[in-house]
Design brief:
Layout: E1 6-12, E2 20-26, E3 31-32, E4 34-39, E5 42-51, E6 53-56, E7 61-67, E8 77-81
Antiparallel strand pairs: 1-7, 2-3, 2-6, 2-8, 4-5, 4-7
Length: 86
Amino acid sequence: MSKRRKYRFRFLNGSNARFYRIFLNASNGQTFPMTQIATEGGLLARPIPGIRSFQVAPAERVEVVVDFSNFPDNTTLFFENRLQQA
């Protein structure tokens, strides 16, 4: 069982052509905020709090922090790509 605290997630798009739009959501589709702290260029000068999603292109990296202390025990959350592909 994981602790209810802040966790840092690093997303690296290793595909050669696909873009992704990532959301943090519950099974009912409700989205939750994240704080972006870095890109492929390294740490940001200031965190960007309250983002609901982010896009990551091929070979790009995005790092976010999610505070799980705000969620009740046994809450199930997903990182989900919602970007339609052509």
